[in-house]
Amino acid sequence: MQCSKCGNSQVIIKKQQSGQYLCKDCFIESIEKKVIKTVKKEKLLDKGDKVLVALSGGKDSVTTLEILNSFRKMNIIDICAVTVDEGIDNYRQEGVDIAIRHAKRLGIEHKVVSLKEEYGITLDEIMQKDNHIGSCSYCGVFRRTIINKAAREMGATKIATGHNLDDEVQAIMMNYLEGNTDNLTKLGAKSSSKAKEFTVKIKPLREIPEREIGLYVVAKELEVHFDSCPYAQQSFRGEVSDLINKLSEKHPTIKYSALRGYDKIKEAIGDGFKKTYPQSRCERCGEPSANRLCKACTFLEELGK
Amino acid sequence: MQCSKCGNSQVIIKKQQSGQYLCKDCFIESIEKKVIKTVKKEKLLDKGDKVLVALSGGKDSVTTLEILNSFRKMNIIDICAVTVDEGIDNYRQEGVDIAIRHAKRLGIEHKVVSLKEEYGITLDEIMQKDNHIGSCSYCGVFRRTIINKAAREMGATKIATGHNLDDEVQAIMMNYLEGNTDNLTKLGAKSSSKAKEFTVKIKPLREIPEREIGLYVVAKELEVHFDSCPYAQQSFRGEVSDLINKLSEKHPTIKYSALRGYDKIKEAIGDGFKKTYPQSRCERCGEPSANRLCKACTFLEELGK
Ligand code: SF4
Ligand code: SF4
Ligand SMILES: [Zn+2]
Ligand SMILES: [Zn+2]
Ligand SMILES: [Zn+2]
Ligand SMILES: [Zn+2]
Q1: For residue B106, what are the CA distances in angstroms to A271, B31, B73, B80?
Q2: For residue A245, what is the nearest residue in chain B, using CA coordinates?
Q3: Chain B within 8 Å of A177 (Cβ-Cβ)?
Q4: Helices B92-106 & B59-73, crossing angle to 10 degrees?
Q5: What 3-state class would DSSP assign to A83?
Q6: Which ligand is in closest contact with the Cα of B298?
Q7: Rounded CA gap, B39 and A129, in Å?
Q8: Over the stretch B172-219, which tens digit does the pLDDT of each residue have?
Q9: Which residues belong to any copy of the 2-thiouridine synthetase TtuA-like N-terminal LIM domain (chains A, B) (predicted)?
Q10: Ligand 1 pocket, residue A164 CB under 6 Å
Q11: Count of C-beta atoms within a 10 Å radius of residue A8
């Protein structure tokens, strides 16, 4: 077997979509080119942007940082990073340390914010107190609030997250199946800039399949945190993920066609769904919120914090 | 176990969605009420309509005829039926005979049109000649053309087809997955009346799960043709059907939520996709067509007919 691009005999991957065989260098180049293509096509970056990377230390966020850094090296954008320490014993610290080392290696402004400092409680403590809601709901709400706040404090103009093709197609299909049209229009490569209170979010890895990101960090020898969270409980997402992967075996382009179809639907819908942007601010913390209390503060009150 | 409605101890079904147990009479009533509800909610019928039922003799079309007939008995609509005989040996004749008996029993104007009479060729003969396209493509195109023509000839104002909940959700998910947004907006309970050349199509069984239609014809002792076509080759549809059914086991309302979500998306899209309605007529047969030749005539020329 030979690399379909350069003829090198050290092939490391057969691309599922195109059927191409690629050697290590050509594979790395293909991923980086594709991310750059997404950035251009979706207009994810503007010259002069300061992009805050939500850096967990996992493969997706490390890859996001690594590839966006090429735009920084060309002086197109500036980059900073934030890592949220949820406070999960025997799990989170390794990811935080890895994030710190990457930020240092690249010389990037970096902030680590822990739930404990910010709210006086760790996820472990929340889960001991109360788990009728599910760890990921707390985690998601608090992390989002912390990242939004960090973006404002660090003067970021965009927030980049590591969502990959599989994450995105799973979310799209879940919302289709659940008939959850409100969430459906919130997906996409770039969040709406209409809600001026919130920094625009971008997903540079949105067209890269999960397994290729796994291979990319290995090929580039990037240190990443591979363990999975002890609280991970993604039943419906897991089911949807399994069935999309099963369809992909026989229909290798199906994740892409589903993504393209979604993008066309989203564009055609335009303002067809009435979107409600938060009009006021949370009484407790001052964050933008549609209700008297933002979601994070609602949880905190329930937790007696 | 007792019927959740009337207490009768002869329960014949546990409804997947609601968890209700129903006896035979309450089950029959529940199906008929639900179809009537769909008809009203989606405004499928107008007083004075003459509805042409596309009557294959299978469970879906026989149920459609049976339930729409209740509107005929109340003098709200008139009904006629058309059966297409594709010419499939050892298969089609039984369905045609059953269709003839139902039309006779109800005293309904009925027409049987064969591919052989109409185009001088049977599906069996087509499949011996040429099968690079696939039986169902020929069959679908010729059947649709014959039904549209019959509707005009019989003075029908609507065409009713037997599509059930499973058919509809499969088609929706297939189009989502394939990114086929043009076909996506053609689904729904009622076809657009903007293409004036075509009779409006309605799907009264769109909210009834396939297995409940199977049980309905048994409970009502309706004669139907249960065999499946020897050419049936629905690989991708079959895969999608399997995975939706698998999800349904754990999430019994998922077919409904996917249907509702689709309906909201379709409404929000509105005219967001440019739809092309046939502007001209087929040079060969005079049917409305976007191209010089309609699809049926394109196939016929390829087949040398
Ligand atoms: S799996 Fe859930 S609980 Fe664990 S880090 Fe992710 S969101 Fe938080
Ligand atoms: S399965 Fe295909 S070939 Fe057979 S009757 Fe149906 S559409 Fe025609
Ligand atoms: Zn190569
Ligand atoms: Zn708040
Ligand atoms: Zn009963
Ligand atoms: Zn024609």
Answers
A1: 49, 20, 10, 10
A2: B243
A3: yes
A4: 10
A5: strand
A6: 6
A7: 51
A8: 999 999 999 888 888 899 987 766 778 999 999 999 999 999 999 999
A9: 2-28
A10: no
A11: 16
Query: What residue spans define the domains of chain B?
Result: 41-274
Residue with tokens 């993920």: A241
Burial (CB count <10 Å: 0-12, 13-18, 19+), residue A41: exposed
Cβ contact, residue pair B261, A176, below 8 Å: yes
Closest Cα to atom 2 of ligand 2: B136
What is the best residue among B93, B136, B236 to mutate for testing ligand 2's pocket, by most ligand atoms within 8 Å of CB? Answer: B136
Contact indicator for B136, B233 with CB cutoff of 8 Å: yes
**Does the Cβ of A231 fall within 6 Å of ligand 1?**
yes
User: For ligand 1, what atom is nearest to the CA of residue A228?
Assistant: 1
Q: Does B275 touch chain A (CB under 8 A)?
A: no
Average pLDDT, chain A: 92
Nearest to B180 among A250, A261, A269 (CB): A261
Checking ipTM against 0.85, whether it exceeds it is no
Residues of B in contact with A179 (CB under 8 A): 256-262, 264
CB A19 within 8 A of CB A8: no
Q: Is B177 in CB contact (< 8 Å) with chain A?
A: yes
Question: Three-class SS string for chain B?
Answer: CCCCCCCCCCEEEECCCCCCEEEHHHHHHHHHHHHHHHHHHCCCCCCCCEEEEECCCCHHHHHHHHHHHHHHHCCCCEEEEEEEECCCCCCHHHHHHHHHHHHHHHCCEEEEEEHHHHHCCCHHHHHHHCCCCCHHHHHHHHHHHHHHHHHHHCCCCEEECCCCHHHHHHHHHHHHHHCCHHHHCCCCCECCCCCCCCCEEECCCCCCCHHHHHHHHHHCCCCCCCCCCCCCCCHHHHHHHHHHHHHHHHCCCHHHHHHHHHHHHHHHHCCCCCCCCCCEECCCCCCEECCCCCHHHHHHHHCCC
d(Cα A89, Cα A225) in Å, to the nearest integer?
A: 15
Residue A131 scores a pLDDT above 70: no
The whole-model pTM stands at: 0.88
Best mutation site among A122, A136, A227, A236 for ligand 1 pocket (most ligand atoms within 8 Å of CB): A136
Tokens read off for A108 = 């990037």
Closest partner CB to B179 (pick from A180, A258, A269): A258
pLDDT digits (tens, 9 = 90+) for B54-66: 999 999 999 999 9
User: Which A positions 18-47 lie with beta carbon below 8 A of chain B?
Assistant: none
pLDDT for B4-53, tens place per residue? 999 998 998 998 888 899 999 999 999 999 999 999 999 999 999 999 99
Whole-number Å distance between alpha carbons of B100 and B289: 31
- Residue A261 distance to chain B (closest CA, Å): 4
pLDDT of residue B276: 58
